[in-house]
Design brief:
This protein has about 270 residues and is mostly helical. It has four helices and no strands. Helix 3 runs antiparallel to helix 4.
Length: about 270
């Protein structure tokens, strides 16, 4: 027995597939209790089946609605992305146009900059080569300075000894000059003193000569041996002259020697 109570499909049924009450009442009256129970079971099974199908359909509808919503969201998102991409594309196109215009204006400047770059590159290469040469010279100079410093450190004691010797030498020269200055001063003083002594002795001799002449005149009548006073005066004059000559000659000798020695540029203290 089918869902429609044993009726053939299309008979006594409405357009929506249900049985009309007019057709259903005679059929129910004709059924027995068992058939009626079976019919109810069949209807219940059909109802449960339809209910499960309905639930499945509702679930499917909900799923489809969710999918539709998600697709709508995706569609809106894609449309937004497309609009953004279109805006971006337009901006890029505008930038490309502007860049092309800039390129047209900047091509001459680019050529000039390339020329400047080539010139500067040559200059920089020249400067770099010079810098390398200077660096090599600097390294060589550093090595030479290191060698010089090492040599100076190794011979530092010699320089110190030489400096001390030079100082001692200057001190010796200063002492010698001071001694020579004192010697010359003493020689001049001695010479002046000897000149004074010679002058005094000469004046004494002159007075003695005058006195002897006066004595001769007063004793002209008396015969006296003339040779005695004259010989005495001459001997006195000769002795005074010899002593003065010896005294002057003795201090003059070292002065002449010293003056000649210093004038010749020789150092008498070198020994």
């Amino acid at each position: 027995m089918g869902v429609h109570g044993g009726l053939p499909p299309g008979e006594g049924m409405t357009e929506d597939g249900t049985i009309t009450p007019a057709d259903f009442e005679p059929a129910v009256k004709k059924l027995t209790a068992e058939e009626y129970e079976d019919q109810i079971k069949v209807l219940y099974e059909a109802f449960t089946s339809a209910q499960s199908d309905l639930e499945d359909a509702v679930a499917t509808i909900e799923v489809l609605e969710k999918e539709i919503i998600e697709r709508e969201i995706e569609k809106e998102t894609q449309e937004a992305l497309l609009s953004e991409k279109e805006v971006r594309i337009r901006e890029l196109e505008l930038r490309a146009v502007k860049a092309s215009k800039k390129v047209e204006h900047l091509e001459p400047e680019l050529e000039k900059m390339e020329e400047k770059y080539s010139r500067e590159k040559n200059r920089v290469s020249t400067v770099f080569s010079i810098a390398e040469e200077l660096d090599n010279d600097l390294k060589h100079a550093v090595v030479e300075m290191k060698a010089r410093d090492d040599w100076y450190v190794d011979h530092m004691q010699i320089f110190e000894d030489l400096n001390k010797a030079i100082k001692v030498r200057y001190e010796m020269i200063e002492r010698a000059i001071e001694a020579e200055r004192k010697s010359q001063h003493m020689a001049r003083a001695f010479t002046e003193r000897m000149e004074d002594m010679v002058e005094a002795r000469a004046s004494d001799l002159a007075e003695a000569d005058a006195e002897s002449k006066a004595a001769e005149e007063s004793t002209a009548s008396v015969e006296v041996v003339d040779a005695t006073p004259e010989d005495t005066a001459e001997e006195a004059v000769e002795e005074g002259a010899e002593e003065a000559t010896e005294e002057v000659a003795e201090p003059a000798a070292p002065e002449t020697t010293s003056a000649a020695t210093w004038a010749d540029g020789d150092d008498p203290w070198a020994e």
